[in-house]
Amino acid sequence: MSTLSTLSTLTAQAASARDRAHNTVPSSMDRKSGLITISPRVVFSLALHAALSTYGVVGIASRYTGFDCTNTEPRRGLDVTIMDGSTDDQTHVQVEIHIIAEYGVRIQSVTGSLQHQIEYSIERSTGYKVDAVNVHVSSLRVTNAD
Known about the structure:
Layout: H1 3-21, E1 27-31, E2 34-38, H2 40-52, E3 57-60, H3 74-77, E4 78-84, E5 91-102, H4 107-126, E6 129-141
Parallel strand pairs: 5-6
Antiparallel strand pairs: 1-2, 3-5, 4-5
Helix pairs in contact: 2-4
């Protein structure tokens, strides 16, 4: 076995263990014509794209207060939890996001719009039920008016 294939196998095993640990195992839906599986990364990408395309959102901030807010790595500030519904057949999603907002915008309007955009994007694309979108505004950033 080559080193590259061993490395890719170990990476896949680590990702699978991480997904199980964070309750982000891909959700499957049985349909008449077959099984549909949606990866948690798809839901994460939908939430990320919706957040970054929302007016007034400059970037994603770290959810850890000790980290520098200028580091805009999305994985640090966006958490998506996917749960299978015990009482109904629907998959439920909860999103927690930490953002950097643009200085001068009405924060309440930006966060409301962000919640709506994320919920709409996930529900429309996957059919999952979004239970909550918790938005934390970590900082403000002044953008150039040039």
